[in-house]
Amino acid sequence: MKVLLLGGTGEARALAAALHPEVEVISSLAGRVPDPALPVGPVRIGGFGGVEGMRRWLVDERVDVVVDATHPFAATITAHAAQVCGELGVPHLVLARPAWAPGSAIVVGSDTEAAETVTGNGYSRVFLTTGRSGTLAFKGVDAWFLIRAVTPPDSDTLPADHELLLSRGPYDYDGELALLREHRIDALVTKNSGGAMTEPKLRAAESAGVAVVMVDRPALPPGVRTVATVEEAADWVRAKTAG
Ligand code: NAP
């Protein structure tokens, strides 16, 4: 049995490790990051070429099962996989890590709404952690930004007044608290990514009295089968293998 594992997350790497070599798993990465953390086992890198390309790939490679363990905000690839698997009748599972409880965060529906919230509340020193594609909405906002991303955003998407911090998690509470204090941050802007790797910034923000603006997750395609943990996903794949 051959499994396509859509990845780019720690959970996807953990699932590949849990199944390899017992199950044939091909991990797929988008190819955005120049030196990605690689899972064990075979890996393909790069887009499939939309819905058509993915359909062709699944048929040509005789894929039996697809597990989508991409990031909760990777909505396009998730929609493509749900559509193609539905059309081909390929069993399909989404591994969606639980969302963070927003607590006292201001929850918004998009980067644009987050930018409006920063302006509306007069935040002046903002820790922006929505990733390289999340800076454009803040370009015209009159505030200073500490922008943390894995790879540099395009220069024409950046707000005028900013400092760029290139780094990759996981992060710890003490480091996050020090960063907020050092830069005298008054608001943290984050996606509701969920998971433990980047969660300490939320606790640090609470301790430091920093406001949190949290972008809510995009909805999953209707009717998809989901699990919350790597263990549940591994069990589901093994059950498919046994069946
Ligand atoms: P996206 O907007 O959902 O996808 C855009 C396009 O990128 C897709 O249409 C597909 O191209 C290609 N793609 C995305 N994930 C792929 C994968 N795992 N394998 C092959 N092609 C893939 O995705 P995104 O938000 O840019 O995320 C890209 C990757 O980074 C994902 O693997 C995701 O897990 C990871 N990631 C994303 C975030 C985030 O905040 N969005 C954070 C951490 C990690 P084609 O249409 O040509 O097939």
UniProtKB/TrEMBL annotation:
PROSITE patterns associated with the record: COBK_CBIJ
Q: What is its EC number?
A: 1.3.1.106
Question: What are the protein's GO molecular function terms?
Answer: precorrin-6A reductase activity
Q: Which Pfam families match?
A: CbiJ
Q: Does the keyword Oxidoreductase apply?
A: yes
Recite the UniProt keywords alphabetically.
Answer: Cobalamin biosynthesis, Oxidoreductase
InterPro entries per the UniProt record, alphabetical: Precorrin-6x_reduct
* Pathway participation: Cofactor biosynthesis; adenosylcobalamin biosynthesis
A Gene Ontology biological process term: cobalamin biosynthetic process
Does Lipoprotein appear among the keywords? no
NCBIfam families (alphabetical): precor6x_red, PRK08057.1-2
Question: What is the designated name of this protein?
Answer: Cobalt-precorrin-6A reductase
Source organism of this protein record: Mycolicibacterium peregrinum
